[in-house]
Amino acid sequence: MLANHLLRSLNDAPLSSMDELWVNEAERRYQHFKAGMTEAIPEDKIFSQIREELRWPT
Asked: How many structural domains are present in the chain?
């Protein structure tokens, strides 16, 4: 809901169909997290994975 609100607040432009899909996916993932169906990944772990995949220096 927050992502949807933020996207809609950008110049009050209507969301594209792709934007709507991403908002719906974000909401689905958030609901799964709240229901305990998904665990959060710690920030340091996810950023180290991203650096490794992109080969960024630490």
From this structure: 1
**What tokens appear for 37 in the block?**
């169906």
In terms of DSSP H, where are the helices of the chain?
A: 2-9, 17-34, 43-54
Q: Which domain holds residue 26?
A: 2-54
> Is 51 in a helix, a strand, or coil?
helix
Q: pLDDT digit of tens for each residue in the chain (58 aa)?
A: 888 788 777 766 777 899 889 999 999 999 999 999 999 999 999 999 998 999 876 6
- The span from the CA of 23 to the CA of 3, in Å, is 6
Asked if 38 and 28 count as a contact pair (C-beta separation under 8 A), the reply is no
